[in-house]
């Protein structure tokens, strides 16, 4: 396992389980149909946990270009490695979206609404307002990146010695994503991750989905640019306060 393959596989699991829970809740005829927002946000939080468990020991489990860029701005990650990480995240997101479609293919075919089909792959606004949709993604990602900067390892204080938590160390970021989804996700679906939205949106455009509509590409720049801007602001504020 290399850092590149860890980012690919970790992001693949993240999107497979994240897109999977959306498909289970909104596609026609599934066991979890109409499960609601709590199921979706919980599923995404657990998807983050799984992705971080896999990739954490090998790549730091960025799984998100906004995380990679934010850490690089703050001097916690080498800029030379940024392109490879982002490429791995985009590839992993595409693979995860493809696998989610394979699993739910019959339910995609049974769902007549093209907007519902697209919603499994990518985010969209509850109320279309470009300025506030962009602001929503900026703020949501700002919260994600800023809080990540303040994660600390468990330790025994007297004398100070770190405690290895193993896979349980992935829980804080899962709870953070859960909190963002529950509190801030109702406006745009909280992409807060350019690869999470762009990769699956590309896969949607390529797949032979019955009754498929457009990919809403006019909106697609918002869940890419918004998270990057939010990450930049979070990194600058963190460095200023530090």
From TrEMBL:
NCBIfam families on file: MIP
Listed InterPro entries: Aquaporin-like (IPR023271), MIP (IPR000425), MIP/Aquaporin (IPR050363), MIP_CS (IPR022357)
Transmembrane segments: 6-27, 34-55, 84-104, 132-151, 163-184, 220-241
Name recorded for this polypeptide: Aquaporin family protein
Subcellular location: Membrane
UniProt keyword annotations, A-Z: Membrane, Transmembrane, Transmembrane helix, Transport
Biological source species: Niastella soli
Family stated for the protein in its record: Belongs to the MIP/aquaporin (TC 1.A.8) family.
Membrane topology: Multi-pass membrane protein
N-terminal signal peptide: none
């Amino acid at each position: 396992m290399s850092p590149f393959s860890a980012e690919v596989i970790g992001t693949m699991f993240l999107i497979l389980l994240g897109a999977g829970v959306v498909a289970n809740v909104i596609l026609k005829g599934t066991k979890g149909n109409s499960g609601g927002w709590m199921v979706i946000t919980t599923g995404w939080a657990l998807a983050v946990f799984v992705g971080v468990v896999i990739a954490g020991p090998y790549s730091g489990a960025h799984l998100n270009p906004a995380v990679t860029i934010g850490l690089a701005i703050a001097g916690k990650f080498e800029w030379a490695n940024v392109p490879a990480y982002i490429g791995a995240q985009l590839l992993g997101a595409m693979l995860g979206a493809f696998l989610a479609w394979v699993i739910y293919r019959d339910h995609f075919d049974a769902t007549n609404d093209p907007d519902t089909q697209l919603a499994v792959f990518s985010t969209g606004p509850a109320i279309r307002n470009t300025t506030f949709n962009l602001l929503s993604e900026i703020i949501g990602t700002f919260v994600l990146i800023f809080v990540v900067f303040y994660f600390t390892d468990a330790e025994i204080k007297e004398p100070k010695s770190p405690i290895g938590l193993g896979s349980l160390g992935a829980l804080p970021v899962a709870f953070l994503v859960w909190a963002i989804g529950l509190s801030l996700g109702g406006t745009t679906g909280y992409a807060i991750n350019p690869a999470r939205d762009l990769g699956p949106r590309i896969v949607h455009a390529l797949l032979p989905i019955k009754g498929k509509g457009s990919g809403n590409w006019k909106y697609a720049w918002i869940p890419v640019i918004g998270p990057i801007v939010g990450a930049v602001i979070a990194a600058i504020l963190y460095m200023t306060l530090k």
